[in-house]
Design brief:
This protein is mainly beta. It has one domain (about 5-275). Helix content is about 10%, strand content about 50%. It contains 3 helices and 19 strands. The strands form 2 sheets. Strands 3, 5, 6, 8, 9, 11, 12, 14, 17, 18 and 19 form an 11-stranded mixed beta sheet that branches. Strands 4-2-1-7-10-13-15-16 form an 8-stranded mixed beta sheet, with no helix packed on it. The two termini are about 30 Å apart.
């Protein structure tokens, strides 16, 4: 799934990136990796029990009209952590040229993809559209973190962007397991209004998919369900079971609160990757 060239914006850059991981002599190994401006791929761990790759952007984010397509392929039995070097900024865009990001991942038999970038940070008057599509083998697993912050709140830019859209689709064995779509647009009412984002400054969706993560998904749903509800809490969480996985949603008054909650609930990831990807990052 990519943004068609004929529909690419007239302004900004059209970037692409590709990552392929295969099992070589019993180790997950990067066999192909390349990127075209404005996106870069950094691979500090290209071989081992798991591969670790981070995206980076020239200038730290998207400028008006940037369009980026990312393709990921994980071969059978491989494991990969795919994150970002820092939060992705979507810069001010007075002429309202949308920034677009698409990602398509194919996850082979018994392979595992942990896709957990830092949150998107949309500046005032920016537009960001994201599409992510995941195709899993019946024995593969996926952990997805998709989240955003309210923007540059220290500068008074709280939910001040022009539009934010994110759409995630997960397929297992060719059958759609999940279609999750979020759209925040002030045309539908002030985003910061009490009945919309209200007091919260960070919103996150976490998806676990695949039979290989069934036990972890069930434990997470049970754990979230057992947490007490507090009136006017600064942090709220919900969890729903899927046929093969779970969807968790978090909202907090600060990115730091949501960060800590995600790291706690996904603590099992360090055993799957043979290391903790958040120990030195958050």
């Amino acid at each position: 799934m990519t943004w068609p060239l004929e529909k690419a914006p007239l302004h900004g850059s059209l970037g692409r990136a590709c990552l392929e991981v295969d099992l070589v002599a019993g180790q997950s190994s990067v066999t192909r990796a390349w990127a075209v401006n404005p996106i870069k791929l950094l691979t500090p761990r290209s071989r081992g029990p798991s591969v670790w790759t981070y995206t980076s952007n020239f200038g730290g984010g998207f400028v008006a009209g940037d369009c980026v397509n990312v393709d990921i392929r994980l071969g059978a039995g491989t494991r990969c952590f795919f994150g970002s070097q820092a939060s992705t900024k979507v810069y001010r865009n007075p002429e309202l040229h949308p920034c677009r990001y698409s990602l398509r991942a194919e996850v082979g038999a018994a392979a595992l993809l942990i896709l957990a970038p830092d949150p998107i940070q949309c500046f005032a008057d920016s537009i960001y559209e994201q599409r992510q599509e995941f195709h899993l083998d019946t024995s593969a697993g996926l952990v997805l973190v998709d989240w955003l912050s309210a923007g540059r709140t220290a500068r008074g830019e709280r939910w001040a962007f022009r539009r934010f859209e994110s759409r995630n689709e997960v397929f297992i064995g060719g059958d759609r397991l999940l279609l999750d779509s979020l759209r925040l647009d002030p045309d539908d009412g002030p985003i910061a209004a009490a009945y919309r984002m209200g007091r919260f400054n960070c919103l996150a969706t976490v998806v676990l998919a695949g039979a290989s993560l069934g036990d972890q998904a069930a434990r997470l749903v049970e754990s979230v369900a057992s947490e007490p509800l507090e009136r006017h809490s600064s942090l709220v969480a919900s969890a729903s079971s899927l046929g093969q996985g779970a969807v968790l949603r978090f909202a907090g008054t600060s990115v730091e609160q949501v960060t800590a909650l995600i790291a706690r609930h996904l603590s099992f990831v360090r055993d799957l990757l043979d290391d903790d990807p958040w120990a030195r990052k958050w």
